Amino acid sequence: MARPSLDLLLPEPERRRGAALRRGLADFLYAPNPDFTSPLEPGLYRSSFILVMADGQAVRVSSFVVPAFGRELCRLRLEPIQHYRQESLGSFFDPSRRGLIYSMTPGRGRVDTRPPAEAGWGYDGSPLAARLGTIKEVLVVTETVRPLEDEETEWQADRGLVLIGADGEESLLLAEAGPGDSAAFLPTSGIYRALFDPLAPAVPGASEQELLGYGDLPAGTVWVVAQPL
């Protein structure tokens, strides 16, 4: 009997959108939210993101989550987007643009808008325009999970994109299985470099398998490759 399997690879239209990011970005936008940063994962940001290319075309990057085999699997999703409220979104290219938060006024008489004042709701790092305005290469990070012989399932999923900027630095967009459809973004890959660089130094507690959220599976059941789009 064939082993049940699931294919969560990027469909061809989404692969083309990912490859088109090599044209470089005019802006990199995010939706401010209370889970945007985490004290447990410094340098990692969670949101749905909008990548605006030099020709004005925009791609929304989020996580596509599928319940399967008793867990939640996911892949990165790249959707074209025509209309978005730029003033509502923060920017990694211009950290002074932090977007807007919408809330009901007391008595719920109307919707109030204001810039996020809470710590951790916006990006406070260095502008990324110089790095990602030109993108030299885009890699897709693909996981393959083949449980041991007594298990009955296997799957493949395109979990992330590596954006190699003009300065040679790698940034990472990564799908996560969590509430909502937020993805993760790491301007500097840090320990997540292990997902696309076989020569990255090993870090205790941060193996490829653990970084992808499969720390509960036996060692040797998760493989990761990164290839150019």
Ordered list of secondary-structure elements with their pairings:
Elements: E1 5-8, H1 12-20, E2 25-30, E3 45-47, E4 49-53, E5 58-68, E6 71-80, E7 90-91, E8 101-104, E9 111-114, H2 129-132, E10 135-145, E11 154-165, E12 170-175, E13 183-186, H3 208-211, E14 222-228
Parallel strand pairs: 1-11
Antiparallel strand pairs: 2-4, 2-7, 3-13, 4-5, 5-6, 8-9, 10-11, 10-14, 11-12, 12-13
What can you tell me about this protein's structure?
With 229 residues, the chain is mostly beta strands. 7% of the residues lie in helices and 39% in strands. It has three helices and 14 strands. Strand 11 (154-165) and strand 12 (170-175) form a beta hairpin. The longest helix is centred in the first third of the chain and has 9 residues, at 12-20.
**Tally of contiguous helical segments:** 3
Query: What does the radius of gyration come to?
Result: 18 Å
User: Helix fraction?
Assistant: under 10%
Oligomer: single chain
N to C succession of SSEs = EHEEEEEEEEHEEEEHE
The average pLDDT is: 91
**Could you name the ranges where pLDDT drops below 50 across 5 or more consecutive residues?**
none
Task: Calculate the terminal CA-CA distance, rounded to whole Å.
Answer: 34 Å
Determine the strand fraction and express it as a percent band: 35-45%
- How would you describe the shape? globular
Helix/sheet category:
mainly beta
Count of distinct strands = 14
- Sheet with the most strands, sense and barrel status: 7 strands, mixed
